[in-house]
Design goal:
Elements: H1 3-18, E1 26-28, E2 31-32, H2 44-48, E3 62-66, H3 72-79, E4 84-89, H4 92-105, E5 110-113, E6 126-132, H5 141-152, E7 153-160, E8 192-194, E9 207-209, H6 211-220, E10 223-230, E11 233-238
Parallel strand pairs: 3-4, 3-6, 4-5, 6-7
Antiparallel strand pairs: 1-2, 7-11, 8-9, 10-11
Helix pairs in contact: 1-4
């Protein structure tokens, strides 16, 4: 048995032991972590649709990948020359997968167990923040965006969320009379659909914004939309927040 085939078998066993995987990542030539993914070659099929909109050269840049899962996007940022890449996630299984992938590919990526609600603990800003496929899993989505803006976003944010409902965006007036309610029925008015029970069998799917809502929430949190290269993906720049918009910090009981 050659060294290459022995390594491939070792990687295959390691990947199987850490499964199931949501990120299908090629960890060796022809060896993938989730070859039978129900979405196909995911997230590569997603990445190809907007990769050209993300800076190709990230030399000397720092990147924070929030909700990194197994680290697909963290790896892609490292491939573009990022000096530092940090992936955070609350799920230890995903973090173990990410560390396994990084080691297999020889990519220097740090992984930490942190929630988006705890990004203030990092104490630093990043040149690029990835916030991909997380918003709709959160019970407090606007708080998460406020915390990202206040604590870790330095310039560019790459954002993606599942969206449902109308894809058109209706013009919204600066103000409405209290008795004027018709605009709420417009399919293009910003709407955040609440999911009380399951959606796609996942109890963590709490929200499904329409396109107008996604864009409105980004603006309301102080992110200027610069590009919309894919149906669910936005490239944003950190800008000033609207007046009196800031995150809240609920007090936790001792212990």
């Amino acid at each position: 048995m050659t060294d290459d085939s022995s390594r491939a078998q070792s990687l295959r066993r390691g990947a199987e032991a850490l499964g199931p995987w949501f990120h299908n990542i090629e960890i060796a030539p022809g060896l993938f972590t989730a070859p039978d993914h129900f979405l196909g070659d995911y997230p590569m099929v997603k990445w190809r649709s907007f990769a050209d909109a993300v800076p190709a050269d990230l030399t000397a840049k720092s990147v924070l990948d929030i909700g990194c899962n197994a680290g697909f996007y963290a790896v892609e940022m490292k491939r573009r020359g990022a000096a530092r890449v940090l992936g955070i996630d609350e799920d230890e299984r995903y973090l173990a997968q990410g560390r396994f992938v990084a080691e297999a590919l020889g990519a220097e990526i740090e992984f930490r167990n942190l929630s988006v609600y705890d990004v203030g603990a990092l104490g630093e800003r990043f040149d690029v923040v990835l916030f991909m496929g997380v918003l709709y899993h959160l019970r407090h989505p606007l708080l998460a965006l406020d915390l990202i803006h206040t604590h870790v976003a330095g310039d560019l944010m790459v954002f993606q969320s599942m969206q449902r409902g109308a894809s058109d965006v209706a013009p919204v007036a600066e103000d409405y009379d209290f008795f004027d309610t018709g605009h709420f029925d417009d399919p293009g008015y910003p709407k955040l659909h609440f999911i009380e029970r399951l959606y796609a069998g996942d109890p963590t799917n709490w929200w499904a914004p329409n396109r107008a809502c996604t864009e409105a929430m980004l603006r309301a949190s102080g992110f200027r939309i610069e590009a919309h290269p894919e149906e669910e993906v936005y490239l944003c720049r950190r800008s000033a927040t609207p007046v009196d918009c800031r995150p809240v910090y609920p007090a936790r009981p001792p212990g």
